[in-house]
Amino acid sequence: SQQGEEDPQALSIQEGENATMNCSYKTSINNLQWYRQNSGRGLVHLILIRSNEREKHSGRLRVTLDTSKKSSSLLITASRAADTASYFCATGRRAGGGADGLTFGKGTHLIIQP
Amino acid sequence: KAGVTQTPRYLIKTRGQQVTLSCSPISGHRSVSWYQQTPGQGLQFLFEYFSETQRNKGNFPGRFSGRQFSNSRSEMNVSTLELGDSALYLCASSFWGAENTEAFFGQGTRLTVV
Fold first, then answer.
1. Which of A54, A65, B5, B14 has its Cα between 20 and 30 A from that of B114?
2. Of B44, B52, B62, which Cα lies nearest the Cα of B25?
3. What are the pLDDT digits (tens) for A39-96?
4. Strand A108-113 relative to strand A10-14: parallel, antiparallel, unpaired?
């Protein structure tokens, strides 16, 4: 089952603009990871943020996490045509004595117009 | 360092047949998890193996099974294939489980059942 939802489902912006995607989830988590996927290929890992962190940066990416609201956001600054892809958030949590894998949202499809 | 390798990349099978997919994780990673991606259901967790033991299993029928070898390579098997099993199957490798560390994905195996 899906842990949460990304918002918006689709986003189209001009090259050079910033893109912001949001992710909500339902249960307590250990970490939240963001991924990019191009045209049904494999998932590329972008960034991991732990439940005790509020913000992380990696190059043009900025991720925030608000555990009280069970939400995260991914900001891509100065977008490029190559950023066109689907973006997914995935939550990881411990369950009992093990874990139940990553639980993914439905993704945001980002289109960068040249 | 080599990434996650999945073989084969594409498969076409007939209903009722069985199929085996392979995943070689990043060197040193002991956790391998499997996911199914379809347009309708999105990304869903199948199971995770850690040091040759299945840690958890998603909500899939018993036709879906897997195993992990002592070198951490993993295979998943689907028996008695159904049309609905057509999907992109992704495996992810992590050092200490996706709930603790980054999970890196392979390019996937696209299975088509006819």
1. B5
2. B52
3. 878 999 999 999 999 999 999 999 999 999 999 999 999 999 999 999 999 999 876 6
4. parallel
Whether residue A114 is preceded by a cis peptide bond, meaning omega within 30 degrees of 0, is no
Instruction: Test A42 with B106 for CB contact under 8 angstroms.
Output: yes
A105 to chain B: which residues are within 8 Å by CB?
A: 42
Mutate to test the interface with B, among A37, A102, A108 (most CBs of B within 10 A): A102
CB atoms near residue B62 (< 10 Å): 7
pLDDT in tens, B8-34: 999 999 999 999 999 999 999 999 999
Chain B residues within an 8 Å CB radius of A106? 42
CA A74/CA A88 separation, integer angstroms = 10
> Chain A within 8 Å of B105 (Cβ-Cβ)?
yes
- Tens of pLDDT, residues B30-52: 999 999 999 999 999 999 999 99
